[in-house]
Amino acid sequence: MGGRQDVKPLRLEGGTVGSCTGRNAVLVALCLAAFLPFGLSASALCLSAVPPFCVAEPSLADTVQDASFRTGSSELVVLPVVVTDKQGRYISDLDRERFIVFDNGRRVPIEIFTNEDAPVTIGLVIDASGSMRLKMAEVVTAALAFARSSHPQDEVFAIRFNDDVQNVIRDRPFLLAQDLGPLNVALRSMRPEGRTALYDALTAGIDQLALGSRGRKVLVVISDGGDNASEASLDHVLARARESNAAIYTIGLFDDGDLDKNPGVLKSLARATGGERFLPRSPVQACERIAREIRSGYTIGYVPPDRDGNYHRVRVDVQPSPSQKITIRTRPGYFAAGRASQRQ
After folding, report:
1. pLDDT tens-digit series, residues 25-34
2. Is the torsion defined by CA of 274, 279, 283, 289 positive or negative?
3. CA distances from 28 to 5, 36, 174, 195, 197 (A)
4. Most exposed of 116, 222, 226, 297 (fewest Cβ within 10 Å)?
5. Structural domain boundaries of the chain?
């Protein structure tokens, strides 16, 4: 069960696409699985803009980006995993056989494994309330530094929030990380003013991530953690975050006398999704580190052992344990399929 898993041939509407094995199978399965809520069936699911990992004829490569794939039934829990040493340096060369995954204490076989530096879909969620007035120039610099350090083919969008929530990239849903010019113009259009609708912005960010074509999803939140203008509640946002397949990284920027700051919210968001909270002196360094982490991690997938609709706790270990101390971080758990049916 833990070895290479064969993937059935994919069918392109209007024709058959070649079967996929080995590295291509891993990449296709990851893309298919990551579009699903954890543990949900993929039967008859259409995924648009899937990259041509398994194209039988080279002539299809130019048109496959506009096609839809269909796959048979499959279920996967997909985990982003980060391994660091005691100095905080990323360890990205561990073999698949070293990893062990536990689901509610039960060891489960790993079906999908990769440490490829593959493009992801990323949302920048930026506080543009009045309290950020003196910090906005540095925030824009940090966001651009993040894009420069990211994979050039990452899909990127940017949401600013104050009294309301707006996508600052107006003419398209996503830019590529390499499109620094348009991103710079969009970010510099932000005007810090008004109150803080953080929870509404997070909800909008999670929704837009689902529109991206990349397998992995990430939100990077730059804020003081306070909220005084949202319709959504913190409980609602945390529930959405746990149910999404997004890792949320948070960067807390605030002064000692900031009455609206709430670093605890930023910590809860990161901890619930396998991300990390940063409270830096400079947001530039934090953004560059997050970009490096995204590109240095592992992605592990497995078939959920139960369809009970409950929350399942997840633990990832590395065996044998290295001689040096390491830290392994992933999301703490997921909701299994069957939840909706059990509510009825």
Report:
1. 444 444 444 4
2. negative
3. 12, 13, 22, 43, 37
4. 116
5. 11-70, 80-116+298-339, 121-296
